[in-house]
Amino acid sequence: MARLKADENLKDPATGKPLPQGVLYRGPKQYRARKLVHGHRVTRTFENARLARAWLEEASVKIREGRAVDDRALDGMVLRALIERYRDDCMAHRERDRQGDKFAPATVVKRLNLLASIFQHAMSEWDVPLTQNPASGRLVKRPAGADRKRNRRLEESATVNEGPDGPLSEYDRLLAVVTSESHPDDVWFVRWAIEQATRRGEAAMLRWRDVDFDRKTISVARPKNDKHREELGPEIRPLMPGTLALLKNKCSAMTEQPDPDAPIFDIGGEDAFSVRYGRAVRKAGLTNLTFHDLRHEATSRLARLFPNPMDLCRVTGHRDLKSLDRYYQPIMTQLANDAAERARLLGIIYGDADE
Is residue 26 classed as helix, strand or coil in its secondary structure? Predict the structure, then answer.
């Protein structure tokens, strides 16, 4: 049997008008509205009867259209709890980026995308009753300039740090300063990055057992967030001529056969190497050259060996051509010279174009 309102709750004391069905007067500016949603009674308190009535009408429309959700779980839930749960469940053992006081546009986008991932995971896996992702790109506009790709390449020549044979290129200057008796593998690591185009973490994780000299391939662990990681296993990539020669020379320099489980590059922790690399770059007088820029350099160099860009993706590990394009930074004069050389080999003559 339906409950009846007490006589004192039949009318709104503020206006004298009858209260809507489902609304009770609880005191000054306290009008409680109640609605049955999915078998659960949902209550809300409002300042006046008009707001309570509007909420009831909106809830009725959502129920009829199948859009009503039981959002009681949101009561008392804070964003920090979602972030910490996502960190513990989904980001275990990942390297944490340091947070500065000011962020570049690309960093802001990464942070927003991380928040969007947290909300999406909470909605789909933890049944958090959100009707839409509050950090999605559709609702929160990303800052302009975040998608700008870097175009830092090692310059072929320079006018400073002259050697016995003339000016040294940025490549030579970089190798000269990373050569160290205290960390002898740093120079091998930098040379590898410029020849093979692997990511820093991928190269640091390589073990001698991951190298197949006969097939000229390396086995690279897939990232932790790859959904096919367990299904497909490690990613097999071809060894480039430069890195194949590098590994053979490194083996020749060793006094004994390398342990298959030992890392190829003994650089210590990645963070410690990054500090040493930053000091080396400053010592060499190079500006705006990150270690990740060497992956851009290697990708651009290797592009000359692979007319088919899909083959180049198999070397660099990029998932698609759009990702690859961000790393391909050709030198325009070099492209013109390459075209002229191919034309010469094909016997195509363009008059006085070479003069």
Answer: strand
In sequence order, the β-bridge partners of residue 27 are 30
Report CA Rg, the chain: 31
289 and 210 assigned to the same domain: yes
pLDDT digit string (tens) for 198-215?
A: 999 999 999 999 999 999
The reported pTM is 0.59
- Smallest CA-to-CA distance from 13 within 1, 26, 4, 3 is with 26
Residue 99 has a pLDDT of: 38
Residue 284: domain span: 170-346
Contact 265, 203 (CB under 8 A): yes
Instruction: Indicate if 297 and 246 belong to the same structural domain.
Output: yes
Token readout for 52 is 């309570």
Confidence tier at 133 by pLDDT (50, 70, 90): confident
> 143 in a domain, yes or no?
yes
Does some domain include residue 1?
A: no
